[in-house]
Design brief:
It catalyses: DNA(n) + a 2'-deoxyribonucleoside 5'-triphosphate = DNA(n+1) + diphosphate. 58% of the residues lie in helices and 8% in strands. The protein is of the alpha/beta class. The radius of gyration is 25 Å and the shape is elongated.
Length: 330
């Protein structure tokens, strides 16, 4: 969970500025719709907004993170912060009615209340209509936060009563910093941040032993290709296929291999700071001198074509054996 607005600025600067200004001017909307792809920080920022709303020692616009209210929100048990999530496949009318009933009571701690509806697009029509009545007559000191990955599925009548805040896909550097902060090694963090812009998925991949092994196997294959000892096809047979043993894993393997060649090209273009495999930069710099830019680009194209063939259900072992022979050329 993010602790302050400064953290948000690094990966959702526009969202951060908009909400910060509203808090400073005491002009928070009574209803927000947070929309954007999975893993862009919508829920975390919802809780951060809740802390700023309830904090007893607000510092300009930032929560103190140490008062009773901040701690209760962090632990998920503040009596005036209510979360509604799908019950099964949908959010039902009864859940919204229970929320309305709860909000008709006086606040337990103060006269403030906040509710978050996660996956708001999954409300049934009856639930959405019940919520609409709630939004049309907002209580003072009440904030609603609706969260969705598919805001086009929300009723227009609800959209018109909410302040829409769009969350942008996260940049690789933001994912990388989040992973490093979660004690993931820099080498793994740099690579994972290229594969997904979903923070949760990134953490899951980075903590998977299979992925760490995959990275090592890809490096080993690349070295076998570069050294041209004839070991690469054998390596596919003895080690590659057993580790990359389904289509999704084989795609990941090709992606990891592609990033090595992208790094070689980045070095040739003088963009060393963009290199993902920073621990290999010395040998990649040497390889960059031995290959032309055209040759590297052709190798990258071969890997992308192999990915397409994989989707077309070509035999993966034959595909990889053919690819390494192609990569060894030129």
């Amino acid at each position: 969970m993010v602790k302050n607005w400064q953290d948000v600025t690094s990966y959702q600067p526009r969202v951060s500025k908009l909400i910060e200004n509203s808090i400073k001017r005491n002009r928070l909307a009574h209803a927000y719709l947070f929309e954007g792809k999975k893993g862009t920080g919508k829920r975390d920022i919802g809780f951060l907004l809740a802390k700023s709303f309830f904090c007893e020692n607000l510092i300009e616009y930032a929560p103190c993170n140490s008062c009773k209210n901040c701690k209760r929100i962090d632990s998920g048990n503040h009596p005036d912060v209510h979360i509604v999530e799908p019950d099964g496949l949908s959010i039902k009318k009864g859940q919204i009615q229970a929320l309305q009933e709860e909000f008709s009571k006086t606040g337990v701690e103060s006269n403030k209340k906040l509710y978050m509806i996660i996956h708001a697009d999954k409300m049934t029509v009856n639930a959405a209509n019940s919520l609409l009545k709630f939004l049309e007559e907002p209580n003072a000191n009440t904030i609603a936060i609706l969260i969705t990955e598919q805001y086009h599925k929300i009723l227009n009548t609800i959209l018109s009563r909410c302040q829409l805040i769009s969350f942008q896909p996260l940049q690789p550097i933001a994912i990388q910093e989040t992973l490093i902060a979660a004690n993931i090694s820099k080498h793994i963090a740099a690579l994972v941040s290229q594969l997904t812009n979903d923070t949760e998925a990134a953490i899951e991949i980075a903590n998977d032993d299979w992925f760490a092994q995959a990275r090592l196997k890809v490096i080993k294959l690349y070295e076998a290709v570069i050294n041209r000892t004839g070991q690469a096809p054998l390596y596919i047979h003895t080690e590659w296929m057993s580790h990359f043993n389904d289509k999704e894993k084989q795609e990941t393997g090709l992606d990891l291999l592609l990033y090595i060649y992208k790094d070689v090209l980045a070095i040739q273009l003088g963009n060393e700071e963009q290199v993902v495999y920073q621990d290999l930069i010395q040998q990649l710099t040497q390889h960059a001198l031995q290959m032309t830019q055209r040759s590297v680009t052709e190798k990258m194209t071969s890997i992308l074509e192999a990915k397409k063939k994989l989707q077309a259900n070509v035999n993966p072992q034959l595909l990889m054996e053919q690819l390494v022979l192609t990569l060894q050329e030129g």
